[in-house]
Protein backbone atom coordinates (compact mmCIF):
# COMPACT_ATOMS: atom_id res chain seq x y z
CA UNK A 1 0.00 0.00 0.00
CA UNK A 2 2.83 2.40 0.91
CA UNK A 3 4.55 1.63 -2.40
CA UNK A 4 1.36 2.47 -4.31
CA UNK A 5 1.06 5.77 -2.46
CA UNK A 6 4.69 6.65 -3.16
CA UNK A 7 4.29 5.85 -6.86
CA UNK A 8 1.21 8.06 -7.07
CA UNK A 9 3.01 10.89 -5.25
CA UNK A 10 5.87 10.81 -7.73
CA UNK A 11 3.45 10.67 -10.68
CA UNK A 12 1.58 13.78 -9.53
CA UNK A 13 4.84 15.59 -8.78
CA UNK A 14 6.11 14.72 -12.26
CA UNK A 15 2.92 16.09 -13.81
CA UNK A 16 3.26 19.27 -11.74
CA UNK A 17 6.88 19.62 -12.82
CA UNK A 18 5.91 19.43 -16.49
CA UNK A 19 3.17 22.01 -16.02
CA UNK A 20 5.52 24.37 -14.20
CA UNK A 21 8.23 24.13 -16.86
CA UNK A 22 5.70 25.22 -19.46
CA UNK A 23 5.05 28.41 -17.54
CA UNK A 24 7.23 31.47 -17.20
CA UNK A 25 10.50 30.73 -15.37
CA UNK A 26 9.47 33.12 -12.62
CA UNK A 27 7.86 31.17 -9.79
CA UNK A 28 4.62 32.67 -8.53
CA UNK A 29 3.58 32.39 -4.91
CA UNK A 30 0.64 30.17 -5.86
CA UNK A 31 3.16 27.63 -7.20
CA UNK A 32 4.88 27.32 -3.82
CA UNK A 33 3.64 24.23 -2.01
CA UNK A 34 6.31 23.34 0.53
CA UNK A 35 9.54 24.28 2.27
CA UNK A 36 13.18 23.20 2.28
CA UNK A 37 15.11 23.57 5.54
CA UNK A 38 18.92 23.68 5.18
CA UNK A 39 20.82 23.26 8.45
CA UNK A 40 23.87 21.73 10.08
CA UNK A 41 24.04 19.34 13.02
CA UNK A 42 25.78 18.71 16.32
CA UNK A 43 28.46 16.33 17.49
CA UNK A 44 30.96 14.40 15.43
CA UNK A 45 30.51 15.01 11.70
CA UNK A 46 27.79 17.53 12.53
CA UNK A 47 29.39 20.40 10.61
CA UNK A 48 27.86 19.49 7.28
CA UNK A 49 24.78 20.62 5.36
CA UNK A 50 21.60 18.61 5.76
CA UNK A 51 18.15 19.05 4.23
CA UNK A 52 14.62 18.59 5.54
CA UNK A 53 11.28 19.23 3.87
CA UNK A 54 7.93 20.45 5.13
CA UNK A 55 4.52 20.74 3.52
CA UNK A 56 3.08 23.32 5.91
CA UNK A 57 6.05 25.12 7.51
CA UNK A 58 5.31 23.47 10.85
CA UNK A 59 6.16 19.77 10.44
CA UNK A 60 9.63 18.94 9.13
CA UNK A 61 11.12 15.66 7.93
CA UNK A 62 14.83 15.08 7.40
CA UNK A 63 15.98 13.92 3.99
CA UNK A 64 18.69 11.29 3.50
CA UNK A 65 18.08 9.94 7.05
CA UNK A 66 19.45 13.23 8.43
CA UNK A 67 22.84 12.56 6.85
CA UNK A 68 24.76 15.26 4.95
CA UNK A 69 23.67 16.05 1.40
CA UNK A 70 27.04 17.62 0.56
CA UNK A 71 30.57 16.51 1.44
CA UNK A 72 32.05 19.26 3.64
CA UNK A 73 35.55 17.87 3.36
CA UNK A 74 35.49 18.18 -0.42
CA UNK A 75 33.98 21.63 -0.82
CA UNK A 76 35.34 23.54 2.20
CA UNK A 77 38.86 24.54 3.17
CA UNK A 78 38.42 23.86 6.89
CA UNK A 79 36.66 20.52 6.52
CA UNK A 80 33.32 21.68 7.89
CA UNK A 81 30.31 23.76 6.88
CA UNK A 82 28.02 25.64 9.25
CA UNK A 83 25.11 28.11 9.10
CA UNK A 84 23.77 27.34 5.59
CA UNK A 85 21.56 30.00 4.04
CA UNK A 86 19.58 29.21 0.89
CA UNK A 87 17.86 31.66 -1.46
CA UNK A 88 15.78 31.22 -4.62
CA UNK A 89 17.05 33.61 -7.28
CA UNK A 90 14.84 36.09 -9.09
CA UNK A 91 14.75 33.87 -12.19
CA UNK A 92 12.80 31.32 -10.16
CA UNK A 93 14.98 28.39 -11.19
CA UNK A 94 18.37 29.06 -9.59
CA UNK A 95 19.26 28.60 -5.94
CA UNK A 96 22.14 30.24 -4.11
CA UNK A 97 23.46 28.76 -0.88
CA UNK A 98 26.24 30.14 1.31
CA UNK A 99 27.82 28.70 4.45
CA UNK A 100 30.53 29.31 7.02
CA UNK A 101 33.73 27.42 6.13
CA UNK A 102 34.71 26.29 9.62
CA UNK A 103 35.22 23.52 12.15
CA UNK A 104 34.61 24.63 15.75
CA UNK A 105 37.19 22.13 17.01
CA UNK A 106 39.86 24.36 15.44
CA UNK A 107 38.74 27.36 17.51
CA UNK A 108 36.18 30.14 17.24
CA UNK A 109 38.78 32.46 15.68
CA UNK A 110 40.10 29.89 13.21
CA UNK A 111 38.19 30.57 10.00
CA UNK A 112 38.69 33.17 7.29
CA UNK A 113 36.45 31.79 4.56
CA UNK A 114 32.93 31.13 3.32
CA UNK A 115 31.61 28.85 0.60
CA UNK A 116 29.36 30.02 -2.25
CA UNK A 117 27.15 27.34 -3.83
CA UNK A 118 24.79 27.33 -6.80
CA UNK A 119 22.20 24.89 -8.12
CA UNK A 120 19.32 24.75 -10.58
CA UNK A 121 17.75 21.59 -9.14
CA UNK A 122 18.56 21.60 -5.37
CA UNK A 123 20.42 18.32 -5.92
CA UNK A 124 23.60 19.13 -7.86
CA UNK A 125 25.65 22.01 -6.47
CA UNK A 126 28.72 23.84 -7.72
CA UNK A 127 30.85 25.43 -5.00
CA UNK A 128 33.63 27.98 -4.53
CA UNK A 129 35.63 28.81 -1.41
CA UNK A 130 36.09 32.54 -0.79
CA UNK A 131 38.92 33.23 1.64
CA UNK A 132 38.47 36.85 2.69
CA UNK A 133 41.95 37.21 4.16
CA UNK A 134 43.64 35.88 1.03
CA UNK A 135 41.40 37.73 -1.43
CA UNK A 136 41.52 41.23 0.02
CA UNK A 137 44.36 43.45 1.19
CA UNK A 138 44.30 44.87 4.71
CA UNK A 139 42.81 41.76 6.31
CA UNK A 140 45.90 40.73 8.26
CA UNK A 141 44.11 40.96 11.62
CA UNK A 142 40.98 39.14 10.47
CA UNK A 143 40.00 36.51 13.03
CA UNK A 144 36.74 35.05 11.78
CA UNK A 145 34.15 35.09 8.99
CA UNK A 146 30.74 33.95 10.20
CA UNK A 147 27.24 33.15 8.94
CA UNK A 148 27.13 34.51 5.36
CA UNK A 149 23.74 35.12 3.74
CA UNK A 150 22.52 36.34 0.36
CA UNK A 151 19.81 38.80 -0.67
CA UNK A 152 18.75 40.36 -3.95
CA UNK A 153 19.06 44.14 -4.23
CA UNK A 154 16.38 45.42 -6.60
CA UNK A 155 18.02 48.83 -7.01
CA UNK A 156 21.12 47.33 -8.64
CA UNK A 157 19.79 43.99 -9.86
CA UNK A 158 22.65 42.30 -8.03
CA UNK A 159 22.99 39.79 -5.22
CA UNK A 160 24.59 40.89 -1.98
CA UNK A 161 26.44 38.51 0.31
CA UNK A 162 26.64 39.73 3.90
CA UNK A 163 28.36 38.23 6.93
CA UNK A 164 30.00 39.17 10.22
CA UNK A 165 33.74 39.67 10.66
CA UNK A 166 35.98 40.30 13.63
CA UNK A 167 39.41 41.93 13.37
CA UNK A 168 41.95 41.75 16.18
CA UNK A 169 40.44 42.79 19.50
CA UNK A 170 37.62 44.67 17.79
CA UNK A 171 33.94 43.74 17.78
CA UNK A 172 32.10 41.56 15.29
CA UNK A 173 30.61 43.80 12.56
CA UNK A 174 28.30 42.87 9.68
CA UNK A 175 29.84 43.52 6.25
CA UNK A 176 28.68 43.03 2.68
CA UNK A 177 30.01 42.61 -0.85
CA UNK A 178 28.38 42.07 -4.23
CA UNK A 179 28.54 38.62 -5.81
CA UNK A 180 29.55 38.28 -9.45
CA UNK A 181 26.98 37.32 -12.08
CA UNK A 182 27.63 33.57 -11.94
CA UNK A 183 27.89 33.45 -8.13
CA UNK A 184 31.40 32.08 -8.08
CA UNK A 185 33.13 35.00 -6.34
CA UNK A 186 32.72 38.39 -4.69
CA UNK A 187 33.39 41.30 -7.03
CA UNK A 188 33.63 44.25 -4.61
CA UNK A 189 35.55 45.07 -1.46
CA UNK A 190 33.78 44.29 1.82
CA UNK A 191 32.01 47.31 3.29
CA UNK A 192 30.24 47.78 6.58
CA UNK A 193 26.55 46.96 6.34
CA UNK A 194 25.50 47.35 9.95
CA UNK A 195 26.97 48.06 13.39
CA UNK A 196 24.79 48.88 16.42
CA UNK A 197 24.96 52.37 17.85
CA UNK A 198 26.06 50.96 21.21
CA UNK A 199 29.29 49.76 19.57
CA UNK A 200 28.86 46.18 20.74
CA UNK A 201 29.40 43.03 18.65
CA UNK A 202 26.70 41.74 16.30
CA UNK A 203 26.56 38.52 14.28
CA UNK A 204 24.08 36.27 12.45
CA UNK A 205 22.40 38.97 10.38
CA UNK A 206 19.27 37.79 8.55
CA UNK A 207 17.49 40.20 6.19
CA UNK A 208 14.07 40.02 4.57
CA UNK A 209 12.48 42.53 2.16
CA UNK A 210 9.12 43.29 3.76
CA UNK A 211 6.18 44.33 1.56
CA UNK A 212 8.62 45.53 -1.12
CA UNK A 213 9.38 48.65 0.89
CA UNK A 214 11.63 48.06 3.90
CA UNK A 215 14.47 45.73 4.78
CA UNK A 216 14.11 44.04 8.16
CA UNK A 217 17.33 42.66 9.64
CA UNK A 218 17.32 40.33 12.62
CA UNK A 219 20.71 39.91 14.27
CA UNK A 220 22.33 38.48 17.39
CA UNK A 221 23.83 40.69 20.08
CA UNK A 222 27.01 38.67 20.45
CA UNK A 223 28.45 38.38 23.97
CA UNK A 224 25.95 40.78 25.56
CA UNK A 225 22.45 39.52 25.99
CA UNK A 226 22.89 36.80 23.36
CA UNK A 227 19.48 37.52 21.87
CA UNK A 228 17.81 38.58 18.63
CA UNK A 229 17.30 42.26 17.86
CA UNK A 230 15.79 44.05 14.87
CA UNK A 231 16.92 46.93 12.65
CA UNK A 232 14.93 48.38 9.74
CA UNK A 233 16.06 50.34 6.68
CA UNK A 234 14.65 51.49 3.32
CA UNK A 235 17.98 50.55 1.73
CA UNK A 236 20.41 47.68 2.16
CA UNK A 237 23.62 49.65 1.79
CA UNK A 238 22.80 53.22 2.88
CA UNK A 239 23.72 52.56 6.50
CA UNK A 240 20.44 54.15 7.60
CA UNK A 241 19.22 51.44 9.95
CA UNK A 242 16.60 52.18 12.60
CA UNK A 243 17.32 49.99 15.61
CA UNK A 244 14.16 48.72 17.30
CA UNK A 245 13.88 48.43 21.07
CA UNK A 246 13.96 45.13 22.91
CA UNK A 247 14.69 41.55 21.99
CA UNK A 248 12.56 39.48 19.62
CA UNK A 249 13.19 35.96 20.91
CA UNK A 250 10.43 34.57 23.11
CA UNK A 251 12.67 32.87 25.65
CA UNK A 252 15.04 33.90 28.42
CA UNK A 253 17.64 31.44 27.16
CA UNK A 254 20.58 32.50 24.99
CA UNK A 255 19.84 32.18 21.28
CA UNK A 256 21.64 32.62 17.96
CA UNK A 257 21.24 31.90 14.28
CA UNK A 258 17.83 33.47 13.75
CA UNK A 259 16.12 33.05 10.39
CA UNK A 260 12.88 34.56 9.11
CA UNK A 261 10.65 33.22 6.34
CA UNK A 262 7.13 33.81 5.04
CA UNK A 263 4.53 31.07 4.96
CA UNK A 264 3.28 30.33 1.45
CA UNK A 265 0.12 32.14 0.36
CA UNK A 266 -0.14 33.80 3.76
CA UNK A 267 0.69 37.02 5.59
CA UNK A 268 2.29 35.08 8.44
CA UNK A 269 6.04 35.06 9.03
CA UNK A 270 8.04 32.51 11.01
CA UNK A 271 11.09 33.55 13.03
CA UNK A 272 13.15 30.59 14.20
CA UNK A 273 16.38 30.47 16.18
CA UNK A 274 18.90 28.13 17.76
CA UNK A 275 18.61 27.89 21.56
CA UNK A 276 22.13 26.53 21.55
CA UNK A 277 22.83 26.01 25.24
CA UNK A 278 19.75 23.80 25.58
CA UNK A 279 20.25 22.16 22.17
CA UNK A 280 16.77 23.24 21.12
CA UNK A 281 15.34 25.05 18.12
CA UNK A 282 12.45 27.46 18.73
CA UNK A 283 9.82 28.87 16.38
CA UNK A 284 7.66 32.01 16.65
CA UNK A 285 5.17 33.65 14.30
CA UNK A 286 4.24 37.23 13.42
CA UNK A 287 1.99 39.21 11.11
CA UNK A 288 4.05 42.42 11.29
CA UNK A 289 7.67 41.27 11.87
CA UNK A 290 7.81 43.09 15.19
CA UNK A 291 5.49 41.19 17.54
CA UNK A 292 6.09 37.46 17.85
CA UNK A 293 4.15 34.59 19.42
CA UNK A 294 5.78 31.26 20.40
CA UNK A 295 4.53 28.27 18.40
CA UNK A 296 6.91 25.55 19.59
CA UNK A 297 3.96 23.37 20.60
CA UNK A 298 2.83 23.37 16.95
CA UNK A 299 6.22 22.37 15.50
CA UNK A 300 7.50 18.84 14.89
CA UNK A 301 10.90 17.72 13.58
CA UNK A 302 12.49 14.26 13.46
CA UNK A 303 15.98 15.78 13.76
CA UNK A 304 17.83 18.35 15.87
CA UNK A 305 19.02 21.25 13.70
CA UNK A 306 21.55 23.95 14.36
CA UNK A 307 21.66 27.36 12.62
CA UNK A 308 19.96 27.13 9.24
CA UNK A 309 17.38 28.65 6.90
CA UNK A 310 14.13 27.81 5.12
CA UNK A 311 13.18 28.48 1.49
CA UNK A 312 9.81 27.93 -0.16
CA UNK A 313 9.72 25.24 -2.86
CA UNK A 314 7.38 23.97 -5.57
CA UNK A 315 6.05 20.49 -6.28
CA UNK A 316 8.73 20.17 -8.95
CA UNK A 317 11.41 20.98 -6.38
CA UNK A 318 9.97 18.45 -3.93
CA UNK A 319 9.87 15.82 -6.63
CA UNK A 320 13.58 16.23 -7.41
CA UNK A 321 14.52 16.11 -3.74
CA UNK A 322 12.45 12.97 -3.10
CA UNK A 323 13.81 11.23 -6.18
CA UNK A 324 17.36 11.96 -5.02
CA UNK A 325 17.10 11.36 -1.27
CA UNK A 326 13.98 9.23 -0.91
CA UNK A 327 10.70 9.92 0.82
CA UNK A 328 11.47 10.92 4.42
CA UNK A 329 10.32 8.64 7.19
CA UNK A 330 7.05 9.83 8.68
CA UNK A 331 5.83 11.67 5.58
CA UNK A 332 3.31 9.09 4.44
CA UNK A 333 -0.02 10.89 4.21
CA UNK A 334 -0.74 11.72 0.59
CA UNK A 335 -3.14 14.56 1.40
CA UNK A 336 -0.46 16.45 3.30
CA UNK A 337 1.64 16.72 0.15
CA UNK A 338 -0.95 18.58 -1.86
CA UNK A 339 -3.25 20.08 0.75
CA UNK A 340 -1.08 21.60 3.52
CA UNK A 341 -3.03 22.47 6.62
TrEMBL record:
Tell me which UniProt keywords the record has, alphabetically: Glycosidase, Hydrolase, Signal
Q: Pathway listed for it?
A: Glycan metabolism; L-arabinan degradation
Task: Please list the GO terms describing molecular function.
Answer: hydrolase activity, hydrolyzing O-glycosyl compounds
Residues of the signal sequence?
A: 1-22
One GO biological process from the UniProt record?
carbohydrate metabolic process
Q: Which domain of life is it from?
A: Bacteria
Query: Pfam families recorded for this chain?
Result: Glyco_hydro_43
This protein is called Arabinosidase
Amino acid sequence: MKQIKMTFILFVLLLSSAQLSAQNSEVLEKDLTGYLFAYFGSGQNGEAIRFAISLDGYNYYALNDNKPVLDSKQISSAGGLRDPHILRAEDGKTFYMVATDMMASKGWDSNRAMVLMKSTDLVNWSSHVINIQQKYAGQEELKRVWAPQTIYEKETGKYIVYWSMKHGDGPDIIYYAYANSDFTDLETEPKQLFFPKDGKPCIDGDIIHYQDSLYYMFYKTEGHGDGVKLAVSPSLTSGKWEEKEGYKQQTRESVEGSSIFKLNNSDTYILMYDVYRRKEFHFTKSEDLENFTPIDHEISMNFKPRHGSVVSVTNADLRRLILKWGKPEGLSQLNLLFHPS
